[in-house]
Amino acid sequence: MPELPETETIARDLDLELRGRTITEVVVRKGDVLREVTAATLRRRVTGVAITGAWRRAKCVVLDLDSGDRIVVQPRFTGALLLSAGPLPDREAAYSTLHFVLDDGRDLHYRDIRRLGTVALMSPARFDEYAGALGVEPLDQAFTPAHLSVLLRGSKQAVKKVLMDQRMVVGIGNIYANEACWRAGVDPSRAANDLRDDEVERLHVGIVSVLTESIAERGTSFRDYVDASGGKGGFERLLAAYGRGGEPCLRCGARLIETHVIDGRTTVLCARCQR
Q1: Residue 224: pLDDT band by 50, 70, 90 thresholds?
Q2: Burial 32-66 (b: 16+ CB within 10 A, else e)
Q3: Which of 74, 134, 142, 144 is the most exposed place for a label (fewest CB within 10 A)?
Q4: Is 89 an active-site residue?
Q5: Parts of the chain belonging to CATH 1.10.8.50
Q6: Mean pLDDT along residues 158-182
Q7: Mean pLDDT within 239-257
């Protein structure tokens, strides 16, 4: 967390706010979040450089620079990109690891409570190498039921584990893997290569629909996720599985089961209608 809907929300907001802005200063407070660049090199390569756009790849927010470099932010569990016109609130400022001063007087902070996320600076060639090792985007046209079938049929691992493997398909984490499996009526612990064609079709629909709907709600906020202005997502109220262990299934009324058997992550499912 954040997963695809959350990082997509952040990237869209930042694209509107940052496109054409120039970075005038870089302040690094916690250099342990940096990857592939030192604080000194980051300052040298981005100071005086304009931001030409912001977008998402997998669970990362990418800032394109007019130098050709890209700032790649992977928030992981507790990271956030926050725009501020003045000091951040105390509850956020304490966890600001670095910030970029912009030519309009605002600051773009990377805040990370547990400092598990990363900020990297990549050349075009390095970014192509990095992005090329990632799987298909689930909201791209290339992600068809046939493509999903190929991914699943090549693995004996649990369906949920395959969905969360960023080398296979990107952006799906624990929340939306649970939700997609519930929507499809598929037991997330089943071997991926055991799914029938109709079940693959339903799972494809479940993945695309839940991600699309969550983006429309600006993501899911359980604990730490906020958008670039500090606002929370609204999809939590629409969750059917994740976070609802012990509650009635919204489809059949049976009590939802919560388990940690699959890869040690919280899995919530209905044993009656997910087969």
Answers
A1: confident
A2: ebbeebeeeebeebbeebbbbbbbbbbbbbbbbbe
A3: 142
A4: no
A5: 145-269
A6: 97
A7: 98
Q: Provide CATH 3.20.190.10 ranges for the chain.
A: 4-132
Q: So what's the pLDDT on residue 159?
A: 98
Mean pLDDT of 24-36: 97
Residue tagged active-site, from 21, 43, 232, 265: 265
pLDDT at 51: 98
Cα–Cα distance between 93 and 189 in angstroms, integer?
A: 41
CA 222/CA 86 separation, integer angstroms: 27
Return the CATH number of the domain spanning residue range 145-269.
1.10.8.50
Give the phi and the psi of residue 129 in degrees, each rounded to 5: -65, -45
pLDDT digits (tens, 9 = 90+) for 57-93: 999 999 999 999 999 999 999 999 999 999 999 989 9
Side chain identity, residue 59: K
Catalytic-residue membership of 2: yes
Residue 3 falls in the annotated catalytic set: yes
Q: Does domain 4-132 have CATH number 1.10.10.10?
A: no
Is 199 one of the catalytic residues?
Answer: no
Q: Out of 3, 6, 8, 199, which one is annotated catalytic?
A: 3
Task: Tell me how far apart the alpha carbons of residues 127 and 185 are, in angstroms, rounded to a whole number.
Answer: 37
Point out the catalytic residue in the list 2, 75, 138, 188. 2
